[in-house]
Each structure stands twice: as C-alpha cells, then as structure tokens.
Specification:
Elements: E1 6-9, H1 16-25, E2 30-33, E3 46-49, H2 66-71, E4 76-79, H3 81-89, E5 93-95, E6 101-109, E7 122-129, E8 132-135, E9 141-145, E10 151-157, E11 160-163, H4 175-185, H5 195-210, E12 214-218, H6 223-235, E13 238-245, H7 253-264, E14 269-272, H8 274-281, H9 287-306, E15 311-313, H10 318-327, H11 341-349, E16 353-354, H12 362-371, H13 376-379, H14 399-418, E17 427-441, E18 444-457, E19 465-466, H15 471-484, E20 488-493
Parallel strand pairs: 1-2, 1-3, 3-4, 4-11, 12-13, 12-15, 13-14, 15-16, 18-20
Antiparallel strand pairs: 5-8, 6-7, 6-9, 9-10, 10-11, 17-18, 18-19
Helix pairs in contact: 5-6, 6-12, 8-9, 14-15
The structure holds xanthosine-5'-monophosphate.
Length: 506
C-alpha cells in the first residue's frame, strides 16, 4: 500500500477493475483490496467500495468494517453494493429486489454539491443491481434519483457518498466526471500516478531485485513481452531474450519481430522450431489436442534453451494478478499461454520469477513502452494467441493450409491498415474454414475453400463485439483475397459476439 493512494475495496462486481483503471486515468494512484484488508490499510487517501453480485440481505453477504472505514477520516464512495452497505451501516434499510435491474437509466440530480458539480441535470447512467434502498438513515440526503423518483445517490455525511450506478463504465455518460469530482473536490489528499515517475521506480526496483543474476525473458513480439524486454534491457541487467518460431506465425512475422528488436536495440535469440511443431501436429484435428501438443512442444523448446535459469521474467499484468487473487488460484496468476505453468510455479516457489509489469493495465504498459522509445506499431499490434494460426485453421494442419491462411490474413490486415481501421479494432484475422465450397472460375466450376474474416472490439478479451467495418473495406479485402489467394473461392465475415462465440475459431 502506498501513502495517499485510492483504495478500492472489491465486492466482486465485474467492473471493479475498471474503477482502478479510471482513477489512474484521472492521474491518481489506486489499487484493489479485498474488503477484509481494510483495517490493515496504511494511510489511504480515499476509499471506494465497489459493486458486487450479492445482496446485502444474504446471511453471509460480504461486509465492511465500518468502524475502521470511518476511523481513516478520508472521503468514501460506495458504488451499488457499496452504497447499500453504507446505507445499512448508517442505520438505513435495504429492500432485496426480486429481479436484477440491468442497463441504462436516468440520473436526475437534485443536489449538485461535491459529487455532481458540473454534471448535467439529467444524464444516462448504467445500473446493475437488485437491492434498493427502502428506508434512509437519519440525516442522509438524497442527491439524485432516477426517473421513477427512486434514490440513486446519497450523501451520508460530509465526506461519504453512495451511488447506485456504475460511474466507471462509459455507458454512464458523465461517470468519469463524477469520479473526478469525488477525487478532486472532496478534500482527499491523493498520490499522483504518472508513468514517468513509475518507470524510474520500476527500473530501480528491477536492479535491486535482479542484482547480478541473469534474467531469461520469452519474447513473442507482442506488446507485453516487448515492453518487458526493453525495460529489463534499460535497467542494465544481464538478459537473455528468447523467441521461438513455432511455424504457426503470421506472414513475415518472425522477420518483423527480429527487425523490431534490432530497432529497440535488444538482442534476441531466435529458435526456429517450426519443423518440430508442424511434425507433431501433422494429422491432429482435435482442438484441445492441438493446443496440448503446441503447449508441450513450447515447453520443450523454451526450456531446452533456457535451462538453469537464475530468474525468469514474465509479462504478467495487473488484471492477471487481480484475477488470480479473486479466483484464489496461484496457477491462474501465470499466463498459461504456453502451458509452462508447472515449471513456472516451481520457479515461483524458489523466488525466481520476476513480474515487473504486474502493477500495470494494458494501456499503461503501452504508455510505458512509448516512454521507453518503442515504436508505435509495436505497441499497437493486435494480440496474437500463443498457438498462433493453429487456432485459425480448424482441423488438421498442413503447410499448404497455413500458407493460405497467412496470405488471406495479410491481405485483410493490410486493408485494415490502409483504411485506418487497424487501430480501431482490438483484434482481426482471417480463418481458413475446413469446408469445401462450389464456385465458378472462368467457365469451370471450382471446388475450393472458404475464408472467414473476423474483426472484434473488446476491453479485455472476456467479451467482444464484432466490428461494423465499412462495406468498402470488406469488399476490397474480399476482392483481393478471391483474386490472389489460390484455393479460395468464398469469403465470409463473422458477425458473432463473444459470448457465445469465442474470439478465435478454436
Ligand atoms: P478466445 O478465443 O478465448 O480468445 O475468445 C480470447 C483472447 O485470448 C487470445 N487467445 C490466446 N492467447 N494463448 C494465448 O496467448 C492461447 O492459447 C489463446 N487462446 C486465445 C485470443 O487471441 C484473444 O485475444
């Protein structure tokens, strides 16, 4: 815990992480804590109680140590579940809702005061709750209602508020300003968060943690491992960066990664293991089996060159840490991408795993990368799965099929770049479908394969929505693929949300 940081108590809402993120975006240091950690916090600057899926009327509903909370004497904001808890603790009552209210609602401000200063009289908010306030504690004022005159914001005391909606989601149109008001107008003494200061701190910490040991870092060309490698290099520690070419990479990818690392001045060792991967995958069509083989081969290849590591650096980010804390599983703390989990757990126990990015969100990693001089394109590459094209070519793999997927993908991505759409989407790719389809080429019937294009937006890959790309972009990509990729006579666009579909095909 840092002095004067914003402590966010996690009551389990799916949006809790976003609160921390928004607070940092507003320029203040923030971390997430379990409600049971409250009494042990040292010198927080403000405290936010998050929303949560439970009802306060449940017997074992998560609680708050109210005495400890008030003893800090700092501004407090309760969000949804957090507001209900504060209401009860102040002597009010809560009526358990029969159904869960979810979605947009109207915020009608009755008293601007601190929280709603500069906020429109009426604006859209995002609700997700089942309980509602039934009796208000004495001395509490209703500072906003919804369109049915139900209280949605309460002021409990001079520096304590509750809101029944999620200010952290963008669907609450003026939510960011409401959070800002809470942080800047409540008299809170808060520590600033800025990536430059953080970088200097991280470099010192790395030097202290590493000493003269050698650090091994797996790199993929992706944002996290690239920033990690450059950061370690900048810290001046002894470093080995290992890149494994699985043969499942995109068109020209290995060459690009090599070039990228030359540009940032970090030496990498390239292991061409494509023959080994493709050999073991030959004839295997079950998706799980494919993943297992790739994971297993990766372990062999990586540890084959990285044995006897003194320290292994991992690109674990803050959301991974939070996820593992809430699932209580040490294993999920580790990126399982390459199924190196057992070995990594072993190293962890021995104190040989270094996770310098574990405090950061993705956008912060990008900002850090930019301040380390990493080129923009490297920081804005779409995520690419560890099993690579194997999950984009359903069924058994062959070099020919991989080549088709590679060509089609390169055309689609080039079209997205040309049209300015590449950075507006979270991830995009072409998948080669395992079906044959009838077409015509010249005067003859053709019997060839189909390509499916997918472009999605997402915040965290847990959910995703397909992108409404302009027809002109889709048409150009389709035309180029049909005209130049041998073996393809049909192009489809995937309009599936996640859930129920996943982002990848397999
Ligand atoms: P799905 O397909 O599960 O993907 O919706 C969610 C996100 O995770 C990526 N992904 C992976 N990344 N190893 C990885 O490193 C994997 O095995 C893997 N499977 C999926 C996917 O590209 C998307 O960004």
């Amino acid at each position: 815990m840092n002095d004067n940081e914003v402590a966010v108590l996690d009551y389990g809402s799916q949006y809790t992480q976003l609160i921390v993120r928004r607070v940092r975006e507003l320029g203040f240091l923030a971390h997430l804590y379990a409600p049971t950690q409250l009494a042990g916090l040292k010198n927080p600057g403000a405290i936010i109680l998050s929303g949560g899926p439970r009802s306060t009327s449940e017997v074992d509903a998560p609680d708050v140590d109210f005495e400890a909370l008030m003893a800090f004497g700092v501004p407090v904001l309760g969000v949804c579940y957090g507001m209900q808890l504060l209401n009860i603790k102040h002597g009010g009552t809560v009526r358990p809702g029969v159904t869960r209210e979810y979605g947009p609602a109207k915020l009608i401000v009755s008293e601007a005061g601190t929280l709603f200063a500069g906020i429109s009289h009426e604006s859209q908010i995002w609700m997700s709750h089942s309980d509602t306030v039934s009796a208000l504690p004495e001395g509490v004022s209703v500072i906003a209602t919804n369109e049915d005159a139900v209280p949605v914001a309460l002021q409990f005391g001079e520096r304590c508020w509750g809101i029944q909606f999620h200010p952290e989601v963008t669907h609450s149109h003026e939510g960011a300003q409401i959070l800002k008001n809470f942080l800047t107008r409540s008299g809170a003494k808060l520590a600033p968060f800025d990536i430059q200061a953080f970088k200097a701190e991280m470099l010192n910490q790395i030097r202290a943690d590493v000493g003269d040991r050698e650090v091994v870092c797996g790199v993929s060309g992706g944002v996290d491992s690239t920033v990690l490698a450059v950061l370690l290099h900048r810290a001046g520690v002894k470093l080995r960066c290992i890149y494994i070419d699985t043969g499942l990479m995109r068109k020209g990818e290995t060459a690009e990664v090599i070039k990228q690392f030359i540009e940032v001045g970090v030496p990498i060792e390239v292991v061409d293991a494509s023959a080994a991967f493709l050999g073991r995958l030959a004839g295997v069509s079950d998706p799980e089996e494919k993943r297992k083989i790739i994971g297993g081969e990766f372990i062999e290849q990586f540890w084959g060159v990285a044995d006897n590591v003194e320290l292994l650096a991992q690109g674990t980010l803050y959301p991974d840490v939070i996820e593992s804390a809430s699932s209580g599983s040490a294993a999920s703390k580790i990126k399982t991408h390459h199924n190196r989990v057992d070995r990594i757990l072993e190293l962890k126990k021995e104190g040989k795993v270094l996770e310098p990015l574990a405090e950061l969100f993705k956008d912060e990693v990008r900002a850090l990368g930019a301040s380390l001089g990493i080129p923009h394109e490297a920081l804005w590459r779409h995520p690419f799965p560890g099993p690579g094209l194997a999950v984009r070519v359903p069924g058994a793999l062959t070099p020919e099929k991989l080549e088709i997927a590679r060509e089609a993908d390169a055309i689609f991505i080039a079209e997205l770049r040309r049209s300015g759409w590449y950075e507006k989407v979270w991830q995009a790719y072409a998948a080669l479908l395992p079906v044959k389809t009838v077409g015509v080429k010249g005067d003859e019937r053709s019997y060839e394969q189909a390509i499916s294009l997918r472009a999605v937006v997402s915040e965290d890959a847990m959910t995703a929505d397909w992108v409404e790309l302009p027809y002109e972009v889709l048409r150009a990509a389709s035309n180029k693929i049909l005209n130049s990729v041998k073996g393809i006579n049909r192009v489809l666009y995937d309009i599936s949300t996640k859930p129920p579909a996943s982002i990848e095909w397999e």
